[in-house]
Specification:
The protein has 250 residues and is of the alpha/beta class. The protein contains twelve helices and eight strands. It has an eight-stranded parallel barrel with strand order 1-2-3-4-5-6-7-8, surrounded by seven helices. Helix 1 packs parallel to helix 3 and helix 8 packs parallel to helix 9. It is globular.
Length: 250
């Protein structure tokens, strides 16, 4: 399963990229506004940091406006994926953009019937929001299972992107169901790494290491001779034997 970062923060994106864990990025108008920077330079900088699909959302309410914005985004960088909402106009725009060969992420999906329509319109990605369903006492991951079954039944190529991820269990469940992508905020990405037994185990190992005498902890990284090459060492003896054999042969 691919992992996307749901963020427009360059510091978060740079840190996540350094882990080698991020395959793409999702943004929305709220995340962009939070950064308080010029829009186009910001999304271009995101493309420089992350070499993968970058979802950028349209802000028009009508299909014509969405199509115009989508074409502009697609012309700015080949990694941009155009986000359109799952409305009637969003589906119209998706069909037109997909017909032009432009990848579309149909967002704000909250039902299996909506996901079916998105796939039929030619969506490259559909984004069901599991966390917001959980907030309404509905099981968000049940929707992912429904969409997965429908897409498999009819071999739709549309990728399922699990959005509105609130905690690590959402990510694990998405992976077990077989979702194509999960997009998550940086806080959840950090939570994926953490485990108290890992921290406790590392602390114990390092405390035990400190009990060794300083000489025993020498790693030979100070630029001096390697311990294995010192006088009387096995490495030195092996080198001497090799030299003796060389002289004998010559």
């Amino acid at each position: 399963m691919k992992l996307f970062l749901d963020s427009a923060n360059l510091k978060e994106l740079s840190e996540a990229a350094s882990w080698g864990a991020i395959d793409g990025v999702t943004t929305n108008p709220s995340l962009i506004a939070k950064e308080n920077r010029e829009f186009v330079p910001l999304i271009k900088e995101i493309c420089r940091l992350i070499n993968g699909p970058i979802s950028v959302e349209t802000v028009s309410r009508d299909a014509e406006g969405m199509v115009k914005e989508g074409r502009v985004f697609a012309g700015l960088h080949p990694n941009f994926v155009v986000k359109c909402p799952l409305t009637k106009d969003g589906l119209k725009a998706t069909r037109q953009l997909a017909g032009d060969g432009i990848r579309v992420n149909v967002t704000l999906c909250f039902s299996a019937s909506q996901a079916l329509l998105a796939a039929k319109a030619g969506a490259y990605i559909v984004s069901p929001f599991v966390g917001r369903l959980d907030d309404l006492s509905q099981e968000g991951m049940a929707l992912i299972r429904q969409i997965k079954t429908i897409y498999q039944n009819y071999r739709f190529p549309t990728q399922i992107l699990v959005a509105s991820v609130r905690h690590p269990l959402h990510v694990v469940d998405a992976a077990m169901i077989g979702a194509d992508i999960a997009t998550l905020p940086f806080s959840v990405l950090e939570a994926l790494v953490k485990h108290p037994l890992t921290d406790a185990g590392l602390e114990r190992f390092l405390k035990d290491w400190e009990k060794l005498p300083a000489q025993a902890k020498e790693l030979g990284l100070g630029g001096g001779a390697s311990p294995s090459a010192g006088p009387g060492s096995a490495g030195a003896s092996q080198a001497a034997r090799s030299s003796s054999i060389s002289h004998t042969v010559s």
